[in-house]
Amino acid sequence: MTKKPCLACKLFVGTSGYSYGEWIDSGFYPSGTHSSDMLDFYTRIFHATELNYTWYQMPKAPAIERMCTKVPKNFKFAAKLTRTMTHEIKKGQWTKQVMLFRQGIEPLIQSQKLLCILIQLPPYFERSINFRNYLAALLDELAGLPVAVEFRHDSWANDKVFSELERRKVTLVSVDEPDLPSLFPPLDVVTNPDLFYVRFHGRNSKGWRSGNMQKQFDYDYAQRELEKWAATIKTTMMAQAAAGGIFFNNHVRGQAPKNALRLIDLLLKDYHLQKT
Amino acid sequence: MSRSIIHLNIADFAVAVESNIQPSLKGYPLVIAPLGAPRAVVYDMSDEAYKEGIRKGMALARAKRINKKIKILPPSFNRYERVMKDLLKQTFAFTPLIESGTSDGHIFLDVTGSGRLFGPSVDVAFKLKKAFKKTFNFDPIWSVATNKLVAKVATRVVKPVGEYIVAPGDEKAFLAPLPLNLIPGLIKKDLTKFFEFNLFFISQARVLTLEQLKIPFHFRAPLIYDWIRGIDPTPVTTLCENLSIISFDHEFSDDTNTADLLKRALYLMVEKTCKTLRNRRLTGGVTKIILSYSDGLQTTSRLKLVPPTSNDMAMFKKCIPLLNKAWTRRVRIRHMRLTCEKLCQGAIQADLFSTGTKETKQGELILAMDKINEKFGKNSIKAGLTIKVKNEG
Predict the structure, then answer these.
(1) B118, A214: Cβ pair inside 8 Å?
(2) Which of A36, A73, A197, B393 meets the CB 3.0–4.6 Å disulfide criterion with A148?
(3) What is the pLDDT of residue B348?
(4) At CB < 8 A and 24+ separation, what contacts does B24-28 make?
């Protein structure tokens, strides 16, 4: 018997970042859109986005505050944790980085626009003693904040990991990415009753390890692939969490917003049916 | 759509280059300044030296008084320039729109049009930073903004390490709380005028209207009005514009202000330039002389050559007043550069009725010297001006 989706579950569907010049060429943004107007246009279509730039640069409270004033009241941001805490960890320095990050995103918390902090871990971050200890310490430092963890190594696909995340009420990010050796598999495990999180990276196996984002994330999801995910989200994930964040990272040639809109259609279809 | 400009800045470039050659210098207060020159001034210094109060342009004697144990190295402009060229080769992989100084560690890239090939500008900037670290062991500051001015201010804000992304549309708000001296282009005189009005921050200066700015700043007012609002439409000057340039350098072993030495160095560079031009069957339309003084400052002068020439003597004759024009300071000169631009095809067909003017005779003489040098080896015959006199520096 299939579970019915939870109508109380709030869904936030969007894209990983919104400021892409090529989305004008693809037709998502009207021709002539100025980069500074993209967020405004984006918020008319989606209700959430991932902040990618916070991975490159420590967020700065004044800039985040200004951004908060540019979006509608109910708009949400998922802020990616800065690389100094995921990819370029310096022993003895990272705790200070967590503190700076907390300060930087404070306006998001104050304005209730923080969906969660997204910890995207690198592919070499295996389930070793050192990395396990580090992740535990990092989650301790981020305690009290909504956190989602994305693994890129399959050694973390383990029940013990899931139950520890569950104990901590930390969201496991479900990923859709190419079926390549050592990559984390696509799972529908929900570890946090407050939030589930899905990231669509595209399934471009050829470009995944090219080192070029334009090749890595160049993928257009087929209708049946999205239908399958829509069914999983509705029947499994929505039933277990109060909210869900779903983001498309296949930004190349405007495929991300296109696929996100299609998924929204698929999710809404049954939602309306069920409501009536 | 707005532009995506990346600014890469290798802080204290000369020090960074020297420290890479001698890693033992890292972490110590280091000053780059000419050793043999009297009244020498600091050309560059490490962050450690900066923290001790040493500044660019400060007299070396004063710097030594601040810290007696300070390490001092003479500047090597040619080396800095070589490293700069290597850095540019890496950046060229992402865009042809690159602008840089000759040896200052600053590089601007316009990646607006290459997003579809290489991805978002922040990712390109980050990749370049990693490449610089891996290949050259440099750790550049990087910033991304919609124009050069804002990008440069952003790197100044985080100096000596870090990065800054200024979101499109956020330029004005980003600049508002910053002090006026961070705006590139505002000279000391401009800042003094602002300070006289008790205006120290960009947000304070913005209160003035264009008409009000015109009173102290006259014709510079419209520029300043835009700068303090983060407006800078100037394009990134492309490298392609520099491809048709011949350039030669001379670095003096000891800083000098002896006219004869300068003239000799100039003639040697003119010879090399004209030889290159003749080999490529070209003539030069414009020459430029850049003098770098021992305190790191530069002066430049430029002259249009009418008619364009590849004749050593004719070019040298025109370069002498050009040298005098560029030589405006009493400070000793460390480095001289001669560039030849606007290259064009030389006359292919000789005049039907040769008049035997001085120029044609000189041309024949130069061609004869070329032949002798080709046959008997380089420097078999040379101009008297280039021969060193005994006991001369």
Answers:
(1) yes
(2) A197
(3) 54
(4) B25/B71, B25/B73, B28/B71
